[in-house]
Design goal:
By secondary structure, the chain is of the alpha/beta class. The protein has two domains: 1-32 and 285-310, no CATH class; 36-282, TIM Barrel, CATH 3.20.20.220. The protein has helices at 2-10, 13-20, 23-29, 38-50, 67-87, 106-123, 137-150, 167-176, 199-213, 216-220, 232-245, 262-270, 286-295, 299-308, and strands at residues 54-59, 91-95, 127-129, 157-161, 180-184, 224-228, 252-257, 275-281. The structure holds flavin-adenine dinucleotide. Flavin-adenine dinucleotide binds next to β4, β5, β7 and α13.
Length: 310
Amino acid sequence: MLRAFLLYLSRAQWAKSMTTNFGFARRTARRFVAGETLDEGIEAVRVLNSKGIKATLDHLGENVTNLEEATRAADDYVELLERIASSGIDSSISVKLTQLGLDLGDEPALENMKRILAKAVECGTFVCIDMESSDYTERTLRIYRTLRDEYGYKDLRTVIQAYLYRSEDDMRALAEEGAHIRLCKGAYKEPPDIAFPRKADVDANYLKLAKIFLNRQAIEKGARLAVATHDEKIIRQIEAHVHEQGIKPDEFEFQMLHGIRTDLQESLAREGYQVRIYVPYGDEWYPYFMRRLAERPANLWFFASNFFRR
Ligand SMILES: Cc1cc2nc3c(=O)[nH]c(=O)nc-3n(C[C@H](O)[C@H](O)[C@H](O)COP(=O)(O)OP(=O)(O)OC[C@H]3O[C@@H](n4cnc5c(N)ncnc54)[C@H](O)[C@@H]3O)c2cc1C
């Protein structure tokens, strides 16, 4: 109930206007967001890199409503890629297609992606397309495959969400294609005819889907998995599975979000695993922040304590 309400608020304009005006809300969001500027994003990555951890930078924003905003978002990503190259940090980037104009049609999103991908190749890094709500799953996968197969951006990556019923078929197809996929549980509000309503079923499906990629046959086809979760039980099960299958640490990676389970991030890196942290920055932090609150209602206490410290 509380999760559903917080996810509803994440999309409500009135709640956004109210919350973003409060200094204490901005302070609370800082736990999950590196800062509002590109410099703060780069600095957060430097700190991670010094601990042997890689990053993927996300310039926050989603669901733009006109072409100018979409073009500006792509310009910002081009600038970000140039900064990644000139500052020598180890970071890829993550983008949302609705930030690049998907609500205005496939074409603007595709064109903006082409510009970003050309720059990523020039800068020697890669791009991952985040997965948004199920309204966009089919179109996101279509644009991902078009860019990968028709335009030759072989290193492009995308995301599959374990809470969707369709994801098992998607993962089987993507493993055959030798795709690079980030597997997460899923952060949006989805109806029970599309997604598992029970957390235990999502967790069980996560492990099942991960194993579709974490086997010799899929790896030999070029398939690579980013295990994106903070769920320690799942992480330990994945560790046991990769040891059993003889899968080497450079054949998959763990991914987590900035500000969540930093202890686990650092201990996995020390154990010799590849770890990549999703580092969001920018002033459009509201929906991202609300999804983080929805994932863990205990975060509401953290929010409330910042209110009383105003
Ligand atoms: C690198 C990365 C990229 C992602 N990209 C996408 C995407 O493209 N599309 C999408 O829909 N979702 C994305 N997500 C979010 C994901 O779908 C989940 O909503 C989120 O990761 C929480 O699920 P969990 O796997 O950590 O498991 P959970 O079972 O929710 O949490 C396991 C444990 O992790 C800790 N934890 C989890 N969330 C929080 C939190 N918000 N605050 C504090 N502690 C927490 C707690 O200790 C909790 O007990 C991404 C997640 C990661 C790590």
